[in-house]
Design brief:
This protein is an alpha+beta fold. The chain folds into four domains: about 130 residues, no CATH class; about 60 residues, no CATH class; about 120 residues, Roll (Ubiquitin-like (UB roll)), CATH 3.10.20.800; about 200 residues, no CATH class. It is about 30% helix and about 30% strand. It has 16 helices and 33 strands. The chain has a four-stranded antiparallel beta sheet with strand order 22-30-29-23. A hairpin with a 2-residue loop joins strand 29 and strand 30. Helix 11 packs across helix 12. It is extended, with a radius of gyration of 42 Å. About 25% of the residues are buried.
Length: about 550
């Protein structure tokens, strides 16, 4: 009996001894390679087995640099396109790849670990890719050569409907580009066919053929109108609106395409409301209407396009458009609420000696700015209010200096208007938010330091209505003197403009000045603004805004 137990225990003892030996062996191997990669481990054929982590990183990092700039050839219909991983935004991650290689064969199961230690194991590079970069780079290289998908469409010539056949298309399969390149990146020549996605048209020739008879009743001249405005839409235009509904497979009219057409013609149907041109009469202390306001019209795009679509499909040949009428912002009933009751400030300048064309330009610009109504808190922009300065708007060419040359330019003399309005805004006590002096001294503006130059689009002259009511800007001319007046509601403050002081003056005509504006509440000065001007010699002017 004892002999049996001795025989039974022997295999167990041997097995236990073997396990201890294996454990010691595996443990010894693990300890020996605690700072190294196990033997026979490679990354896409690059052997880093038995290398220390530092050695393995150096090998992988050097390979990473080489692979990043390695030429990659993508082909499409016998054309070759050269690129690199770097250009494509595909980045090999050396750190993550090394960690992955280091963990290979390191398992908790002792019995399974020992045989694997001596087996050859190859792993892949870990990488990241940016699809936006891929699409941008390859799109620029390959997209122009790709076939563009096109639905079968209609054309109309000489009274006949023509069907233009469909065409299959292709696009880059960005999601497969990196995964297609990486498995072969270590080959001597990296060359592969560009991954593409096939695109099939949704409307075929046969789709149109089966409904050709119905098309003939739709493709004919159609009229759209509002009041006295009538626009004829030709069959050649309407044929581009026709499509096929993918759900019902029946002929339809694209409302989006109709909207695009309406946007192209809406200037004919749309107009902005024009406020009445106003003037404050100091004698009657009332606002007077110089020119009545005008209603505006606005094309209702959604409603009009929907109605046109419905009418064409129903065989109707004429559609009345939805147009909203918009009233002027200011009308006679609102005059009292505007708060335009008293003169806030006045400015003047003399344009004696101006040429005929300069006088004309001053009058045109002064009329354009006059009757401007500013809301409480609104900022006035001379450039924006003035608009375009050209022959169409009544301006004449007048000599100005540009780049040391005297040349004719439309609108010469406009700065007489901006300068005069600057002085009115100063005297009204309004905050000046943008003002620049002329590049050189201009005799029309008297003593230097109280001028304001403008030029489209910059520089501008700006000020703000900081009162709680509207203010009205208006002008008049007596002889050769231009006056600007600003009317509104008194804030209880008064402004005093101090004559400019010359800080520096040179024989060549250059000069520096400063002018002050003081604002009072009663007898107490609450604010003092300084306006500095620097004038260069006339013969060194690099740019000259419109005098």
């Amino acid at each position: 009996m004892k002999s049996f137990w001795k025989r039974a225990k022997l295999p167990t003892i041997i097995l236990a001894i073997l396990l201890v030996v294996v454990s010691i062996t595996v443990g010894g191997v693990a300890y020996a390679y605690r700072d190294s990669v196990y033997p026979k481990v490679s990354v896409q054929g690059l052997d880093i087995g038995s290398k220390t982590l530092k050695e393995a990183f150096s090998i992988l990092d050097e390979k990473n640099k080489n692979l990043g700039t390695k030429n990659i050839i993508l082909t499409y219909e016998e054309q070759e396109y050269n690129t690199t991983l770097e250009e494509l935004g595909i980045k090999l991650n050396t750190d993550e790849t090394l960690i992955q290689a280091y963990r290979i064969k390191r398992k908790n199961n002792i019995l399974s670990s020992l045989p694997q230690i001596f087996q050859t194991t190859d792993t892949n590079w870990i990488y990241t890719s940016d699809n936006e970069v891929l699409e941008s780079v390859l799109g620029a290289k390959i997209n122009p050569a790709l076939k563009t998908m096109a639905d079968a469409k209609l054309d109309y010539k000489d009274g006949q409907i023509i069907i233009i056949p469909e065409q299959d298309g292709e696009s880059l399969d960005v999601s497969k580009i990196a995964s297609s390149i990486m498995p072969i990146i270590t080959k001597e020549e990296v060359k592969l066919e560009t991954p593409l996605i096939k695109e099939s048209p949704s409307i075929s020739t046969s789709s149109w053929e089966t409904q050709k008879s119905d098309l003939e009743s739709l493709i004919r001249e159609h009229n759209i109108f509002f009041n006295d405005t009538n626009i004829k839409i030709t069959p050649e235009e309407i044929v581009t609106w026709i499509t096929i509904d993918q759900t019902t497979k029946k002929i339809d009219i694209s409302q989006d395409t109709i909207k695009e057409y309406l946007e192209s013609v809406q200037k004919t149907l749309t107009s902005q409301p024009v406020n009445a041109k106003l003037r404050f009469n100091p004698e009657t202390q009332q606002i007077e209407i110089l020119e009545p306001g005008k209603e505006g019209t606005k094309l209702m795009m959604e409603e009009s396009s929907k109605r046109i679509r419905t009418d064409i499909l129903a065989g109707v040949t004429k559609t009345e458009l939805f147009v909203a009428v918009t009233s002027p912002l200011i009308d006679e009933s609102q005059f009292d609420a505007l708060g335009v009751r008293t003169l806030l400030g006045k400015g003047e300048s003399n344009f004696r000696g101006s040429s005929r064309s300069r006088v004309k330009n001053i009058n045109v610009a002064a009329n354009k700015i006059s009757s401007t109504l500013l809301k409480p808190g609104e900022e006035f922009s001379f450039v924006n209010t003035l608009g375009k300065v050209d022959a169409r708007n009544g301006y004449l060419p007048e000599l100005v200096i540009k780049g040391n040359k005297t040349i004719p330019e439309y609108g010469g003399g406009i700065c007489q208007v901006s300068t005069t309005l600057f002085r009115a805004a100063l005297n009204a006590g309004l905050p000046i938010t943008e003002r620049r002096a002329h590049s050189y001294v201009v005799n029309y503006y008297g003593k230097p330091g109280l001028d304001a130059t403008i030029y489209l689009p910059k520089p501008d002259f700006r000020f703000q209505n900081d009162t709680n009511h509207h203010i009205l800007i208006q002008h008049y001319i007596v002889g050769t003197v231009l006056y600007y007046e600003i009317y509104g509601t008194s804030t209880g403050k008064t402004a005093k403009t101090i004559e400019p002081v010359i800080l520096e003056s040179s024989p060549d005509g250059s000069m520096k000045t400063v002018a002050y504006r003081e604002i009072y509440e009663g007898d107490v000065m609450i604010k003092r603004d300084a306006f500095y001007s620097t004038y260069r010699p006339p013969n060194k002017v690099t740019s000259n805004p419109l005098q």
